Structure prediction request, 594 residues.
Amino acid sequence: MTTTFKTPPRLGDRVPKSQRKRWIFTGIVGVLAIFVNIPLFNAILVSFKPDGDIGKNPLGLPTNPTLDHYANVLYASGYDFPRFFANSAMIAVGTVLLVLCIAVPATYAIVRLRFGGRWILDSASALRLLPAIFFVVPFFILFTNMGLQDSILGLVIANTFLNLPLGIILLAAGLRDIPIEIEEAASVDGASVYRTLFSLVLPMLAPTVVAVAVLVFIFSWNDYLFALVLSTSNATPVTLGAANFVTSTGIRWGDISAASFLSTLPPLIFAVFAQRYLVSGLSAGAVKG
Amino acid sequence: MTKGRPELAAANKKRPKRKNTAAAALLSLPLLAFALIFVAYPLVSGILTAFQAKTLLDPSAAFNGIDNFTALFKGPGFAKSAGFTVTYSAIVVTLEMILGFGLALLVNRKFPGKKAFFTMLLLPIMVAPALLGVMFRLLLNGDIGAVPALLHGMGMSVSLFAPDSVIPLLVVLDVLQWTPFTFLIIYAGLQSFPEELLEATAIDGAGYFRSLWSVVLPVLKPVLFAAFFLRAIDALRTFDVIYVLTAGGPGTSTTTLSIYIYKAAFESGDFGKAAAASLLVLVVLLPFVPFIVKRIASTGLEGKK
Prediction:
């Protein structure tokens, strides 16, 4: 957040008292912030406990922290976790690239060159509100016919389908915030549409492009439904792989917790280090159409 | 349908007429091609499948009229899952709106450690629902979970996944994950609130709730509306967490519409029936869509804080 939280000094406010009052809010918000993350923190704690400890001591901190579970997940044969992880990475990065390649030029054409018109943006908003489950069966049939079933490319396409509306909505909003005068000047100077888009508009649009990239990465990393339907083994991402861990490996709770924490790590890293883009993207995406 | 929007009209007036149709068409080509193959075609094929006797094993396209729909209404599963989905969504969204609003008011002030805790509050939104389902299993497992151990220590023995406790459990879990989302949207809305108004509200301790009601709520209405509808739409299509945790059970007591459709298609292999159920859901939701699109588009909240 780049917002500054200015509270003007109020008459009659004594500093120590208001300071103490503020710490109360730190306490309350802190407790709530920890509370909503209990599942995550619990998984992290369990992942460092030796197998024997997990059942005996469900509530305490790990007494003899171990990295065995991480070693198992990453190196033990038969788990395939590194492959799931690589699949997720390829799917997420591929989706980000495809969404941007499709959405950036098209949004420019719609907003600035008045191509198509308002209905394209409206249908993008509408599409985002429709239940994805409707498309599951048609996608399954289509992908089976096209030979895209259980392939990385197939899941990239499915996730592009899911995220393209958000990308278009955010980019259109970002584009409208850029003054058009610069582009007009460029066109008077004889710059082509393509040149204007790539060397003039794109740099100014960069913050929105980054926000779209971050959100699309997280959403496609987190997809489960389409992965469940459209992948069987070759293209399995971590969401599906980690959920299968529970049934396929029975009681290996330590390994499961390590796998689920590692799988959550990339989106969490974005949440911490790209928070500005995330917050702007989520809140603008929520309210702009 | 939104031609009358002032913002758009202003933009149109400013924009000079250019003859770049060819360039515009070329730039839109990837989108048009993608939309044709992966949006329009699946949409049409989904609608057609609803009137066909397609199955997983026999994808031949024999039309069977409205047989799929009559089958849906004859069996108890569809109506039951629709009822569960609507009730469940109504409960979780109501709770998330109230708690998210409260949390946003709580955080909307200066206090030490605000930045770190704000980040922490957003983490649940980032965790994949399916992975969160796995983490919940870890937390709630009868043998090794921290929650049953805690309850046991307090002298209670509750079987969390039993038929009469599983729905409240799922409600709590959904509220834990998605209250941060309503919080974020409402908090962003509060940031664009005139500061003096909030100050006045905060200082006047006695009338806090009254000014909340008469000053803050009206201004915040569009934002609350956006948060409500986005959550409602998401709640109505809930799949991941519940599927990972209960697979719709015990019995069919936690089967959402999405789980029902998924199972009809890929467990029973009845594509026609699944497509018919999807089409019904789509048709029921469709009338709301233009309304929501219009309302959400007109909030005008800047998200760049």
Q: What stands out?
A: Chain B touches chain A through 127 residues (CB under 8 Å). Chain B has a mean pLDDT of 84.
